[in-house]
């Protein structure tokens, strides 16, 4: 089916990002939020037209971009009003909302659960962007009741946002995201919680490693609370396994248990990290470190200098949090020495011995 | 004191990086490793001269860049040979090696423990670079026995590497790094260990968040095993606290304990993350997302296009692991729209509505 009009229910980061992507493709987008001011804000960003949902303006598809716990009631309300022909959602938990919606008496033939992977630390319509889901996976969880046309509508939505649709059951989805998203969040929170109590001189020694491990713990507690409670079972199981490994390791380190778990855990960690898709590149690369004063404008000057050399840079990485900024330029291995020389000749601080 | 000659014992990543920094400042550097081929490799990189340590060539300072457990014996050996006037080390654990060296009968007046913060995932002399410690903290742990001239020598070493010396006791240091470095590593390992066992379709949903939380778990198990065992007590305590939080959270999610710990943990996580120094910037910034084919050379073309606009870019971020690459350019807020327009006019895919 060709989607023509889409009703977005909930114009936060996710809903507004979907709306912006649909507007880029010329679709009609209706925007609704329990706080009408938020829907107007999204409309002002060009995401569509703020409306009070009703059967008078029936959309082809409604996207319930609300927290997982709010999906069943939102589905019932949209169906009661007749505000959309088919419905999907964007919540990061699937099995419980689907079961609850069925229990509320919703028409499950017209519903297909969806979960676009992606997101940002920031929230709200102002943080939204049309490319948020471009190239990302978008999980669809049809039930045996879901009508083929409803599945097609949800799939068309994912494709219109530039995402890659993936079909699995709600239970499969929930176990997968418990492991790859929700458990990592809580583990990061449990570690960061230790930093909350540490004295200042201790925290002064924390660097990029500590920052990376805990970055996702900065997410909004209210939203994450809702997500975590909606997927409680699979998360609790994974948390207990992680806690069990940590306790065995602590016992080994105290000498009150066998010593093997320490080395074993480190080895399994290396294996597990290697299984995360992406991030790796093929071909031999060299990198050129450059010391840059950590103030606005300096990177622009550096990138200009790189540009003038004509050498192709494939990645630009920062080591933030240092008194002196360090930028690492990744290039083809054969070009590293050349680039280092060119930058030095232009007065940039490039330590010798770049790898 | 002015350092003139430094003996590096252990020419891995850390030792060779220190050596390269010292060579940049024109100091004489002697290189020793239990594997002479590794010392020669470092010498070939321009890090100094490979030697068999002896009293015939007495250095001003020896840097024991060996794993924590190997520091006491290395100190004893260097002092027995008379190969250096003063000694320091670069191990990431301080109290146990200091106590053990004293027990071995080492001359503790001539020793000051040191720990340069920093490092990389890669190891070995080929991964070394002179700027590895530039702008980073370098902890010095003198004991009451340490001679002032020994402390000055260790401080001169840190400064010659461009680092910022910080003085604290060995026990203070060990508790601090247990919390900010060793515990994060094991927590990341415990999470990544779960990924090692997960089915393929589950891991396909893992993204940047999962990658960030577990990145440090990729470190070499042998080295980390040595580090962790040398600082066992403080780490075991922190691991138990993290495991306790995870277990309480799991009980809450199962409904077999009070529910508050879930929200409480998320809130404490946000607070703790905010206490990590660095990473934040002042001033209002805008960002421009650009879709880029994920293949070599494309980023170079984009950076060239940015360069031609004359707009100063302050950060370049990637979202790796997507089928379509997404580059986020950070600029002054007022320039975001202009840059987006300029890039679009040059044919780049810049989604509308950039925030």
TrEMBL record, chains A, B:
This is Prephenate/arogenate dehydrogenase domain-containing protein. It holds the Pfam family PDH_N. GO terms for molecular function: NAD+ binding; prephenate dehydrogenase (NAD+) activity; prephenate dehydrogenase (NADP+) activity. Residues 4-284 form the Prephenate/arogenate dehydrogenase domain. Keywords: Oxidoreductase. The keyword Oxidoreductase applies. GO terms for biological process: tyrosine biosynthetic process. It comes from the Bacteria. It comes from Actinomadura macrotermitis. Gene3D superfamilies: 6-phosphogluconate dehydrogenase C-terminal like domain (1.10.3660.10), NAD(P)-binding Rossmann-like Domain (3.40.50.720).
């Amino acid at each position: 089916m060709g989607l023509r009009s889409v009703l977005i229910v909930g114009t936060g980061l996710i809903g507004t990002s979907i709306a912006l992507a649909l507007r880029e493709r010329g679709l009609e987008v209706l925007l609704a939020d329990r706080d009408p001011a938020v829907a107007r804000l999204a409309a002002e960003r060009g995401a569509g037209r703020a409306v009070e949902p009703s059967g008078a303006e029936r959309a082809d598809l409604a996207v319930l971009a609300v927290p997982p716990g709010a999906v069943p009631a939102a589905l019932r309300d949209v169906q009661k009003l007749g505000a959309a022909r088919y419905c999907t959602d964007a919540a990061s938990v699937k099995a419980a909302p689907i079961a609850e919606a069925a229990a509320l008496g919703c028409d499950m033939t017209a519903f297909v659960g969806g979960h676009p992977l992606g997101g940002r630390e920031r929230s709200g319509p102002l943080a939204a962007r049309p490319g948020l889901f471009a190239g990302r996976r978008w999980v669809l969880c049809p039930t045996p009741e879901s009508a083929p046309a409803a599945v097609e509508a949800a799939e068309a939505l994912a494709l219109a946002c530039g995402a890659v649709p993936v079909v699995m059951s709600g239970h499969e989805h929930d176990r997968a995201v418990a492991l790859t998203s929700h458990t990592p969040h809580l583990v990061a929170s449990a570690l960061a919680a230790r930093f909350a109590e540490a004295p200042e001189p201790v925290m002064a020694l924390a660097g990029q490693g500590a920052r990376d491990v805990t970055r996702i713990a900065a997410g909004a507690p209210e939203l994450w609370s809702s997500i975590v409670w909606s997927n409680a079972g699979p998360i609790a199981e994974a948390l207990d396994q992680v806690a069990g490994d940590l306790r065995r390791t602590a016992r080994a380190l105290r000498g009150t248990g066998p010593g093997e778990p320490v080395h074993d855990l480190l080895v399994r960690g290396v294996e597990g990290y290697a299984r995360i898709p992406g991030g790796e590149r093929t071909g031999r690369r060299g990198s050129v470190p450059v010391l840059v004063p950590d103030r606005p404008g300096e990177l622009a000057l550096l990138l200009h200098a790189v540009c003038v050399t004509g050498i192709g840079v494939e990645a630009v990485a920062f080591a933030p949090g240092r008194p002196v900024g360090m930028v690492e330029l990744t290039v083809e291995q054969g070009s590293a020495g050349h680039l280092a020389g060119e930058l030095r000749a232009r007065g940039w601080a490039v330590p010798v011995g770049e790898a």
